[in-house]
């Protein structure tokens, strides 16, 4: 029932080739590396057809193709990379783990599907991204959450949607049916804060050899067992690792699912397809992409920014933030965007208020002069890192701008004038005082 299909079929493959030729050099381009042991270049054709329908220029190659290349003359040939060849031991052409790592460092996004038959290159790539795969021939096992059609090793896992990352931008907003999974387990590097636990195993899951008795502590146990993991690098490059290649197959997309536990509900279809599409939209930067539009700042009541602000000025700052939705830039709707007015440390930190697609705020500059920055640093789960910094100068008051008399100094003024009046009166008394003459 869940046998992985052996090939695309000539008709489907011809359709994909014609579609790619008709689309021409449509950006963004995706290089798809398929398994070398099949006659066709890829399995899970429905997933790729959907990607082509979304406007991607798909290029299909086997992972050991001698003509493979990601970089030519210092330029990336593709925007995204799909690796659906878990057992590959050596990539063809000039592609290797170092090349893929450089591709990620250059901002490229990668979607990787592994399996229990995982080769060293994918294992090394995972280590570079803070993901550690379990040993070859191991599988995720769950004796309480397996499908009713499992052959007996309890490796056909039914993952509840409660174990998904709470990030609609990554996993989609729609309610999903249970996820069907069969593959290798992963664990995340605890020292890497960029790794995302997209789908974890249940508390009863673990990763081990399904045909051997447990003689040592498993590599991954319980919620620490990652089924699908992600990474968004500091340069906004995105990587998704799935421990199951079957997860993307038509068989798993269209299969019914039901836990073997008595009384469990039967679902006519898994949630694999919806989750796979949501993950591909995120990793290929169709979702969760933000950008900064126009930025302006000026004194309240004016329109143009001055050459330099003066301490205690009342200023207005505004910024336009947009997100990518269905290929178009639309205003971003957020209520937690903050502005900082920074010299070395923030002197002012305040929330920006949305006003017709523009975020703005008015505030009073601190009574401190120097070189400051208007800084917006927005970093939220599932979204690209948004950063905007505008440097301005703040000068002290000019001599003609100071108050003639400072109210807080009135006691000192009174003390000074009272001293002068007292000295004047003392001088008069002292100068005109005449001692009485002594009588004989």
Automatic annotation (TrEMBL):
This is Dolichyl-diphosphooligosaccharide--protein glycosyltransferase 48 kDa subunit. Pfam families: OST48_MD, OST48_N. Subunit of the oligosaccharyl transferase (OST) complex that catalyzes the initial transfer of a defined glycan (Glc(3)Man(9)GlcNAc(2) in eukaryotes) from the lipid carrier dolichol-pyrophosphate to an asparagine residue within an Asn-X-Ser/Thr consensus motif in nascent polypeptide chains, the first step in protein N-glycosylation. N-glycosylation occurs cotranslationally and the complex associates with the Sec61 complex at the channel-forming translocon complex that mediates protein translocation across the endoplasmic reticulum (ER). All subunits are required for a maximal enzyme activity. Component of the oligosaccharyltransferase (OST) complex. Pathway: Protein modification; protein glycosylation. It is found in: Endoplasmic reticulum membrane. GO terms for biological process: protein N-linked glycosylation via asparagine. GO terms for cellular component: oligosaccharyltransferase complex. Residues 297-434 form the OST48 middle domain. It is a single-pass type I membrane protein. Residues 52-283 form the OST48 N-terminal domain. It comes from the Eukaryota. Keywords: Endoplasmic reticulum, Membrane, Transmembrane, Transmembrane helix. The chain crosses the membrane at residues 410-431. Belongs to the DDOST 48 kDa subunit family. It comes from Corvus moneduloides (New Caledonian crow).
């Amino acid at each position: 029932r869940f046998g992985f299909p052996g090939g695309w079929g000539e008709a489907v493959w011809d359709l994909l080739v014609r579609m790619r030729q008709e689309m021409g050099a449509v950006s963004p381009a995706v290089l798809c590396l398929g398994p070398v042991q099949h006659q066709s270049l890829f399995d899970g054709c429905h997933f790729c057809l959907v990607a082509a329908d979304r406007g991607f220029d798909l290029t299909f190659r086997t992972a050991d193709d001698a003509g493979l290349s990601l970089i030519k003359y210092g330029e990336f040939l593709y925007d995204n990379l799909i690796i659906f060849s878990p057992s590959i031991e050596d990539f063809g052409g000039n592609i290797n783990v170092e090349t893929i790592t450089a591709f990620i460092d250059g901002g490229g996004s990668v979607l990787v599907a592994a399996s229990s038959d995982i080769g060293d290159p994918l294992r090394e790539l995972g280590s570079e991204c803070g993901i550690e795969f379990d040993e070859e021939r191991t599988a995720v096992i769950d004796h309480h959450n397996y499908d009713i059609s499992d052959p007996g090793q309890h490796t056909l896992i039914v993952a509840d949607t409660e174990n998904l990352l709470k990030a609609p931008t990554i996993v989609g907003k729609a309610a999903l049916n249970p996820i069907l999974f069969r593959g290798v387990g992963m664990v995340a590097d605890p020292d890497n804060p960029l790794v995302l636990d997209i789908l974890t195993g249940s508390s009863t899951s673990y990763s081990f050899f399904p045909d051997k008795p447990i003689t040592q502590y498993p590599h991954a146990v319980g919620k620490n067992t990652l089924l699908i993991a992600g990474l968004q690098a500091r340069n906004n490059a995105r990587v998704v690792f799935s421990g199951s290649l079957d997860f993307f197959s038509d068989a798993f997309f269209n299969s019914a699912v039901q836990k073997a536990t008595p009384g469990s509900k039967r679902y006519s279809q898994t949630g694999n397809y919806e989750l796979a599409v949501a993950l591909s939209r995120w990793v290929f930067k169709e979702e969760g992409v933000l950008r900064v539009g126009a930025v302006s700042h000026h004194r309240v009541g004016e329109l143009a920014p001055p050459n330099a602000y003066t301490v205690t000025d009342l200023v207005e700052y505004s910024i336009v933030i947009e997100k990518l939705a269905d290929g178009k830039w639309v205003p971003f709707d957020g209520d937690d965007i903050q502005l900082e007015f920074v010299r070395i440390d923030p002197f002012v930190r305040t929330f920006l208020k949305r006003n017709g697609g523009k975020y703005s705020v008015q505030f009073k500059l601190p009574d401190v002069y120097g070189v400051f920055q208007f800084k917006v640093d927005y970093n939220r789960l599932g979204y690209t890192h948004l950063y905007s910094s505008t440097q301005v100068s703040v000068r002290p008051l000019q001599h003609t701008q100071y108050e003639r008399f400072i109210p807080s100094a009135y006691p000192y003024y009174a003390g000074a004038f009272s001293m002068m009046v007292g000295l004047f009166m003392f001088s008069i008394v002292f100068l005109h005082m005449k001692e009485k003459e002594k009588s004989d």
